[in-house]
Specification:
It contains 12 helices and no strands. With about 280 residues, the chain is an all-alpha fold. It has one domain. It is globular, with a radius of gyration of 19 Å. The N and C termini lie far apart (about 50 Å).
C-alpha cells in the first residue's frame, strides 16, 4: 500500500471552524493526479463522483445550469450522457451505469409526487460506492453517510408522527433495525457508537447549528480512522472529505444554511406539514 509522505506533509492543517477552505480542491486534485498510484486514483474517483451526480441533476433540470467543476466529467460529457439516455442507449461508456439509468428515467419520474431527484441520486451514488469501492475505510465512510441520513430522517419522521418506513432509503442492517424497532434509538446505540451523538443532535432546534454538529461528528470520525496512518491513501481521502465539508460551508452564509436545511425537511415531508421549529426565522 502506497504512502504519500511528501504530499501529506505539505498540506495545511484543516479546522472545521474555519470559514474558508484551507486549500483549493482543484489544486489538491492536480497534485494527487501527479502523485497517486493508478489504483489509488481509481479510489479517489469515487470521492469526486459526488459532484458529477449533483451536476447531472442540475443539468437534467436545466441544461443551461452552471456546474461545479470539482467532478470527473465535463459539461460536454454530461450532455453526451443525457443525449444517449434519451436515445435509450443508456449504458454509456465512461460513466457509472447508475448515472445513465438515472438520466434515462428522469423524464418519467420528474413529475411524480414525492419524487426528489437529489435524494434519489444521493442514494444511488452511495450504493454504488458501497458496492464498488475496494477500500474498507472508504466504504465505511459511505456507509456512515447513508446511515446518518437514514437515522436522522427516521428521528424527524417519528417526531412528526409520520410512518418512518416511508422515508428510509436502501437496504441493510441499519435500515432493517429502523423499520422494525420501536425504541427511542431504534436499538442502534449498542451497535453504533455515533448514534448517541445523533440522539443529541436531533434535539438541536437551530438548523445551522444542527448541520454543524453533524459535520463535527463526521470530521471526528475521519480523524479517528486515520490517526495512526497519517500518510496513507485513507488519510488523503479523509483530508479530501474534510476539505469538501469546508467547501460546502464556504458557499453558505447563515441564512442560506437555514434555507438548505429547510429544503432537506421539505424533501422529507411529502404532503405533511413542515415542523414550526424548522421554518421560524
Amino acid at each position: 500500500m502506497a504512502n504519500y509522505y511528501c504530499l501529506m506533509a505539505g498540506l495545511p492543517e484543516l479546522e472545521l471552524s474555519d470559514t474558508q477552505p484551507g486549500y483549493n480542491i482543484a489544486e489538491l486534485r492536480e497534485q494527487c493526479d501527479q502523485a497517486l498510484t493508478p489504483a489509488d486514483k481509481k479510489l479517489m474517483f469515487f470521492f469526486y463522483l459526488q459532484w458529477d451526480c449533483a451536476n447531472l441533476v442540475k443539468l437534467l433540470k436545466n441544461p443551461e445550469a452552471k456546474i461545479d467543476l470539482q467532478g470527473n466529467f465535463s459539461k460536454d460529457q454530461y450532455t453526451d450522457l443525457m443525449t444517449s439516455a434519451r436515445e435509450l442507449n443508456f449504458n454509456v461508456h465512461r460513466f457509472p451505469s447508475f448515472m445513465s439509468v438515472f438520466a434515462r428515467e428522469y423524464a418519467y419520474n420528474k413529475d411524480k409526487e414525492g419524487y426528489f431527484p437529489e435524494d434519489e441520486m444521493t442514494l444511488a451514488y452511495l450504493q454504488y460506492c458501497l458496492k464498488n469501492c475496494q477500500n474498507k475505510t472508504m466504504r465505511r465512510w459511505y456507509k456512515l453517510t447513508l446511515d446518518i441520513n437514514n437515522i436522522l430522517t427516521a428521528m424527524i419522521a417519528r417526531k412528526q408522527g409520520w410512518n418512518v418506513s416511508d422515508f428510509i432509503k436502501g437496504e441493510g442492517e441499519v435500515q432493517d433495525m429502523i423499520r422494525e424497532n420501536k425504541t427511542k434509538d431504534f436499538n442502534l446505540s449498542l451497535e453504533f457508537d455515533f448514534v448517541k451523538d445523533l440522539m443529541k443532535i436531533v434535539e438541536e432546534e437551530d438548523p445551522v447549528k444542527k448541520e454543524r454538529m453533524i459535520d463535527t461528528l463526521k470530521w471526528n470520525w475521519l480523524d479517528e480512522r486515520v490517526f495512526f496512518n497519517p500518510f496513507s491513501i485513507e488519510a488523503l481521502f479523509a483530508y479530501q472529505c474534510k476539505l469538501g465539508i469546508q467547501y460546502r460551508w464556504a458557499k453558505l452564509d447563515p441564512e442560506e444554511g437555514k434555507e438548505t436545511f429547510k429544503q432537506i425537511i421539505e424533501n422529507l415531508r411529502g404532503e405533511a406539514r413542515v415542523p414550526e421549529e424548522f421554518i421560524q426565522k
